[in-house]
Amino acid sequence: MSTLPFTKNERVNLSTAEVLLACGDAEGLNILTEMFAGFGVHTPRRCRTIAEAKSSVHERTLNLLVVDSALSDGEGYDFIRWLRRCDVAPTCYAPVILVTGHTKPTQIFRGRDSGANLVVRKPVPSLVMMQRIMWLLKDSRPFVTSPNYFGPDRRVKALGPPGGHKGRRHDDLSAEVGTASTPNLGQDEIDSLFSPKGAK
Question: What is the mean pLDDT of the chain?
Answer without folding.
Answer: 84
